Amino acid sequence: MTGQPGQTGKSPRKNGPGVPRAAGSQASLVPVEAQSTAPTENVVGDRVLIAVQAVNISRLSTHPVPTVPGTLIVVAGAGPKDSNGAGKSSFIAMITALLGDEQWRFASGAKSVSELLFNAELAAGGGSRSWASADHGYIVGVFAGADTMDDAVTVWLRVNQEAPHLEIRWVPGVRVAAAPSEAERVARADEVWATLPRSAGRRDVVARDLTRFLYGDRIRCVSFLSTSVRSKVATNLLSQPLNEISPERVFEAIAALTGLDAELDQEREARRDEHVKRVRAARAVELLKEFEDESQTLLSTFDRRDRARVRLADALRCWRGRLARRLADAARRDESLAAEADRLRAAGERASEAINVVRAETATLKDDTLERALAEARKELTTLQSRAARLDADRAVAENAVDELRGQVPGLEERRRLADGRDVRAADAELDQARLRLNEALKALGVADREVEGARAALDDAEGGPAAAQLNALAEAGVGATGLLDALDVAEHARDDDAASDRAGRTATVLGARGWPREHAVIVDAADLPAAARALGALPGSVLVSAAGVTVVGSFEAVATGREARIKAAEQRLHRARDVQETAAGAVRAAEDGVAEAGRRLEGARAAVQLADIERRTAERRGVLAELVEALAEIGPKVGEAERRAGTLDFRTRTRNMEVERLDARRARHEADRDQARDQAAKVAADRDALGVDALAGEWGGTVEGAREWLEALSEQERPLTAEEWWRAAERRLDEALRDTFPGEDEEMPEELRFLVRERTEPGAGRTAREQATFPGVCGALSSYLRGQEEYERHRRRQIETQIVTRQRDLNAAAKGAEEAAQSTAVHRAALTAAIKARLARVAEEFEKLDTSYGGYGATLEFPVPPAPADPEQRWAWRVTPKWRRGEGQGFVPYNRRANTALMDEKAVKLVCAAAIASSGGGHLCLVLDELGRNLGKEHRREAVALFRRIGETYGITVIGALQDDMEPYAVDACGQYIKLRRSSDAMPYNEPPVIIGHDRHSERVRALASVVSR
Q: Which pLDDT does position 462 carry in this prediction?
């Protein structure tokens, strides 16, 4: 190990970071030659970073800092209070910018790199008033081969506050800004930059070309940075427990480490481009639709007017057909009417002759003898039918009465049997006797119930007994006791004596004279007397008797005797009372049964009386019914004879009347035929005059034969049409032509046409006649208007067709562009899917190797392919689920299952290193971690840091991690190089020289870098 402290003092940069000072000596290990004007890609190649220098970058010192590649480099800090404020995050962020970390978005100009420049407003203490913010600064990196420094190259990045925010130059050899003081090194940096050749001929390479020119688009750095200058902070797998990170954030972290971020952004840009082109195509459709909608109004108007011209011609033709049909029909009708008039005259003469013959036959048939005989027969029949109806009604009433009486007999006979031969008076007397016995039994039962209640109350009093409350309270307190009177067997008559019995002894003498509450006294043991007194404290008046004497807690009110004797006597009394009660209840039930039986017998006796009355009434009704049946039998033949005679006379009368009616009807028909023939003859004459054949021929403009020839030339469908159908067709065509020409209240309608249309459509009588009279004029005016609009419409149609063709061509181009963009996006997404799966498979493979190589049982990643998002602004979210085995031969367990902290920390470190190894592509890689091990447990920090170093040295990865204070003791012994940035006071805007302790097997390079640092 080689320890190299930095310079102990520095010259303050009082003139500002960008003010040049007197030039000092220039230290360079290799002579610098002018660079060729032709730009070269992959300038760094396989070289590794061996030193870095910051000029006007945050608070960092301008001293060059050597770096040992292929191991763990920890960056600690010592600020005014703790490690905060020493510039650790800015130092590692500067290294990621130098190594081309894509998270800086170099393709967009890397504007966020300019936020690393020194900012006086953020400087602490009074120094912020004396120093100016830097408008530019430099990040210098020295790259060399693995075994020699002969092929070293120095890369200079100029960071500008204004665009371009990043400019890149390089020169062979080691060429840093070396001078005795900070201010001189700042000025020397500007001088060195001015002497460096432009990297791209006449211009400098800028941010978007940094990775291509320096590293050949190879990934040289992946990072987890928490600094606020980053535009996007990737998920740090080491900043919190791994099982608290979602699968989406795990993928984001791996994507940041493996360089998939840019490809995902490209996929989102492709989706945005596709969305823009689709929107453009949709907009073209909308524009075409809007133009077509706008044009459709004109085209619809033009089409309507074209239809109006056709319909107007059809209307005129239909009008011509109406005139021809009217003339032909009138001529044919006139011929038929002439023949009809001759026929009607002959029919009238024949009807007059038939009328005279019918009148003679009718006079012969009319006579009133038959009507008088029919009236007498009907009168006799009515009298007999009325008498028979009355007799039949009386018979029905008698039958109903007998049936009703017969229906009551079975029920009365059933109830009569209940009387057992008793009459009503005897049954009624027996019922009164039964009710008296029931009343006496109820009285005895009431007396027995009261006796039972009294005996039960006496038993309850005896069981409660003297001193019951005191005995219960002492039992709850656990004190053994018994009632005084219960212990003494005293006769009932002796409870009130003043002198005690022989059995009571001295106790009775002590208790005193009559009136003392002896029944509340209890006997307790002398040792339990205090406890008993406390237990009876809530019962004032209690008396405690023991061998130690008598303790009066209160006084009682009555005298008690032997408790067991009283309870026994009360129980015997209760048993006797209950026996008497049961006997009385049985007597009541027997009395109730006797009352019910006496009631049923009385009801049977009354039913016997009713049955005798019904039998008498039934015999009377049957006699009346027999007389009525006999009378009906006698009158029946008389009614039949009267009906026969009246029917015969009625038939003869109706036959005669029918014949007369027939003759009258025939005469009426002949008269009607005669009158009809006369009326029709007059009507035919009027119809011939109304036809006006000569006027119709004038309207047609030809002869009847000409009209018939015109109609014969029509098609089969039109030839049968009537004049009215021709008129309706002509009217309909004209109305359609008017609506097509003027669909609404159109101001363009000529005044003449408006007048005619208003006249023909005015409501009221004679509207059809007005419509027919104005038809030719309306057709002429409308035809004139349509001829005037025809040329303008043809011109506008040609213009609209040209515009639609042009807009359709634009729409096809936009649709084709959208389709091509969709195909391109699909192809890009498919390729990206394959690339992501391959990259994640590579990470899973390295994760497996690292886990099995460093004490695990195997690990893998699960990453299903998610569907692409529909929103063009949404990032394509993948899910990565780390899994590992917890024992040999066991299955894989997801990372979010409960596990110990050490296992989680170990797997997180291995996963980060696996992602870094997979992204390196076999070349040297630098893994930069901010706040290394912040979330690691104290007992696992040293092991996790040592694991980083072993993996880095095994796979050639340079791991650079910034530390917090609590992590520094664990990382010092486990790292390969230790860098400590120092700033002792808030009044100092810049850091002191760093402390660097490192090991490198290339001793010459270490000594060369040490000499530069020491100066």
A: 63
Q: What is the pLDDT of residue 11?
A: 36
Instruction: Assess contact for 959 and 948: CB atoms under 8 A.
Output: yes
Neighbour count for residue 842 (Cβ, 10 Å): 17
Distance separating alpha carbons of residues 156 and 141, to the nearest angstrom: 7
Tokens representing residue 888 in the block: 């040999």
Burial class (CB in 10 A: 0-12, 13-18, 19+), 631: middle
Handedness of CA 284, 288, 293, 297 (dihedral sign): positive
Give the C-alpha separation, 902 to 632, whole Å: 128
Q: What's the rounded Cα separation, in Å, for the pair 138 and 11?
A: 19
Q: Are 894 and 871 in contact (CB under 8 A)?
A: no
How many angstroms separate the CA atoms of 982 and 992, rounded?
5
Residue with tokens 């007197």: 22
Residue 973 CA, distance from chain mean position: 59
CB 155 within 8 A of CB 162: no
Any long-range contacts for 509-515 (C-beta under 8 Å, 24+ apart)?
510/549, 510/550, 511/543, 511/550
pLDDT at 597 over 90: no
What values do phi and psi take at 524, rounded to 5?
Answer: -130, 165
Q: Is the pLDDT of residue 900 over 90?
A: no
By the 8 A CB rule, do 536 and 473 touch?
Answer: yes
Q: Is the CB of residue 994 less than 8 Å from the CB of residue 979? A: yes
User: 983 and 86 in contact (C-beta within 8 Å)?
Assistant: yes
Q: How much is the pTM?
A: 0.46
Burial code (b: 16+ CB inside 10 Å, e: under 16) for 862-890 equals ebeeeebeeebeebbebebbbbbbeeeee
With 50 as the cut, is the pLDDT of residue 414 above it? yes
Q: What is the mean pLDDT of the chain?
A: 76
> Of 235-249, 498-512, 713-727, 963-977, which gets the smallest average pLDDT?
498-512
Through-space distance between the first and last CA atoms of the chain, rounded to whole angstroms: 21
Compute how many other C-beta atoms are within 10 angstroms of the C-beta atom of residue 46.
12
C-beta separation of 137 from 114 below 8 A? no
pLDDT band with cut points at 50, 70 and 90 for residue 324: confident
Q: Which residues contact 379 (CB under 8 A, 6 or more apart)?
A: none
Quick: pLDDT tens for 81-137.
Answer: 776 777 888 898 899 889 888 778 888 888 888 888 988 777 655 444 567 788 999
Which residues does 499 contact at the CB level (< 8 Å), separation at least 6?
A: 508, 509
Q: Sheet of 481-483: strands edge to edge?
A: 481-483, 521-524, 543-546, 549-552
Residue type, position 115, single letter: E
For residues 280, 283, 284, 289, the Cα torsion angle rounded to the nearest 10 degrees is 170
What pLDDT sits at residue 169? 93
Spatial neighbors of 914 by CB under 8 A, at least 6 apart, are 843, 844, 846, 847, 849, 850
3-state secondary structure of 790: helix
Q: How confident is the model at residue 8 (pLDDT cuts 50, 70, 90)?
A: very low
pLDDT band at 503 (very low <50, low <70, confident <90, very high): very low
Diameter over CA atoms, the chain: 174
Asked if residue 544 lies in contact with residue 524, where contact means CB atoms within 8 angstroms, the answer is yes
The more confident residue out of 146 and 506 is 146
Beta bridge partners of 222: 927
The angle subtended at Cα 892 by Cα 889 and Cα 897, nearest 5°, is 125
Structure-block tokens of residue 371:
């009507």
* Phi (first) and psi of residue 928, to 5 degrees: -110, 125
Tens digits of residue pLDDT in 156-215: 999 999 988 899 999 998 889 988 888 889 999 999 999 998 877 778 888 888 888 888
CB atoms within 10 A of CB 285: 14
Q: Residue holding tokens 């005191």? A: 470
CA–CA distance, 955 with 971 (Å, rounded to integer): 20
Q: What is the dihedral of CA 776, 782, 784, 790, to 10 degrees?
A: -140
